[in-house]
Design goal:
Strand 2 and strand 3 form a beta hairpin. The longest helix is centred in the middle third of the chain and has 13 residues. The chain is an alpha+beta fold. 57% of the residues lie in helices and 14% in strands. A 3-stranded antiparallel sheet has the order 1-3-2. It has a single domain, classed as Arc Repressor Mutant, subunit A (Orthogonal Bundle), CATH 1.10.10.10. The chain is built from 5 helices and 3 strands; from the N terminus they run ααβααββα. The radius of gyration is 14 Å and the shape is globular.
């Protein structure tokens, strides 16, 4: 399996977690701030002001666990909160997705 195969698989399986990586491009965020930023981004870019990508804490937990397990985010404990930031792998995946975009 090549590096490109691995990046293709990651990009195909990201789903809605992709929007978290997009908003983290601007810098790290506390976990509880992620839904606000993701939903705002989605509503502006997709033109769907009523739709929420992350509508529950459960969905947030699933998406962040998926990203963390794939190594696409780095997580730091800040007191009792968790701070999420993009990893180098996420940056590489982003470059790969731009290059292979059809």
């Amino acid at each position: 399996m090549t590096k490109e195969d691995i990046l293709d698989t990651l990009s195909q399986r990201l789903g809605d977690a992709m929007y978290i990586l997009i908003v983290l491009k601007d810098g790290p965020l506390l976990k509880e701030k992620i839904p606000e930023h993701v939903n705002e981004y989605y509503q502006q870019k997709m033109g769907e002001p009523e739709k929420e990508v992350i509508s529950s804490r459960h969905k947030l937990d699933i998406l962040t666990a998926k990203l963390e397990g794939a190594g696409l985010v780095n997580v730091q404990e800040v007191g009792r909160a968790r701070m999420f930031e993009r990893s180098k792998l996420a940056d590489e995946l982003s470059r790969h997705m731009k290059l292979t975009k059809k």
